[in-house]
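Predict structure. Chain length: 576.
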Amino acid sequence: MRSTGELGRIPANRKAQALASLQPDGPLSFAVGKGWRALQRGEWTEARRQFERSLAVEETAEAWEGLAWAAWWLSDATLLFDAREQAYRSYRARGNDRGAARCAMWLAIDSVEFRNDGAVANGWMQRARRLLKRHAQSVEAAWLAACEAHHALMADKNPVTAQRLATEAASIGEALRIIDVEMLGRALEGLALVSQGQVRDGMRLLDEATAAVVAGEVADRQAIGLACCYLIFACERVRDYARAAQWCDRVKQFCRRWRFTMLFAVCRTQYAGVLMWRGQWAEAEAELQAAARELTAIRPALASAATARLADLRRRQGRWDEAAALFERVETSTVALLGRAEMALDRGDPRAAVEFAERYLRRYAQEARAERVSGLEVLTRACAALGDLVRARDALRQLEDTVQAVAAEPLQAFVRFATGAVAACSGDHAEARAAFEDAADLFARFEAPFEEGRARLELGRALAATRRRDAAAAELRTAAGLLRALGAAREADRADALLRQVSSPGTQAADPVARLTGKELEILKMTAQGLTDKEIAARLHRSEHTIHRHVANILLRLDLPSRTAAVAYALREGLL
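Prediction complete.
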């Protein structure tokens, strides 16, 4: 395997195929040929100059198409759409269906990336598909299948359809001996398999495609960048961050070498996910802020992922107002839905957390197992915090089945954490202790300090509930240290507050009443009688929202995870 510094170099015997999937067939004029060779070298401004010179003499489809690609690399959206549409019309006028389909296909992609115009994109994609009916074994047909696979996976959340289309793209590429599109198809197929839970088979295809990139076999720079990004994306879905970290630097170097600003920004967003997992939050913040700026400037439709991840980082830091403002800017993105569910739990609003988690899960088909794991894990904890053990256990069962199907060991940490939350809610603190211990050990093994800190905090709570105060205090001190070192101030404060309770058993029995207002104590008593928020609101002549807020405050004041836990605490301490 070649060194990192060689990624993206095109061997001499591959130069002729460097733009095989993009360059028009047939002979080119001298001026147009110079423009395409400049594109091949990554000299975008020079390519633009050459194509504009050629068009000043004679307007040809090949020159317009080349100018569109120069504009694409330079992120000049106005010129890009004008040139691409001119190329499409010129090819149609000449009866060149393959050339016209090539332009239509990329106009579809550009319409989403630059303008977020889904209907327009669909129209262009339909034109490309119709024009290629008689050219099923062409490089354009292979690229069309790859583009449709990408859309099926990323937009429609349908990995089964994506796998079928990606396999088709790879097969055509292999038959035509065009390795660029073949490896792109293999990478997409791998990502689709990982999404369905077939991690071993999917990663095998992704590793093959990326190895071909590093070996210099793939020449097309888009195929190179996308194949690498698909691998990193797959790693993130199953929390295989060790593997992702190995490839992130290679992708970043490729992007810098070829001045691939858009892909670099997208990869920075994914790389930030690796950094957040590993607790390198300052570096993650820098990457996300840079990515958000770059994508907002050149591909606004793609900027939401960076914004949503930055919001989630703010949530972890305990900067909730900032996180909420950022989430509102991208409230419909899937990353934002998960983040908002987590933040609702952080703020003691499990009902809202359930709604966000369920909304997230509705976005994904049952076959999208890897993506559903996060939603099911949050839903389980939210139902437990709400005191709804029936729904919590059902969500936990779905989570266990899904993770078993995915067979990615890092995901077991989330299963054990969710198991602990359900056990604690049901009052089985021994089971909760064992589950949180397993979760903490797994998170530590996979280098996730924030998740480890939170697991140790809950482990301390479970140990305290079983009267093992010394062990609880040790876990809580460890949790507070981990979380404070990261900059997770609110979580660290929670650990410290619980540590003070555990370390001062003599004052514990006298404190609970003082922590609650008279109204909160009244609401707690009604909750203990089994009344719902709606029923309590009717008795007290208050809105249901007001009662819900009081319940959330009770949980925060007592530092407890659920309504059930609050009632159990009140009974144990003699409040009722």
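Summary: The two ends are 70 Å apart (CA to CA).
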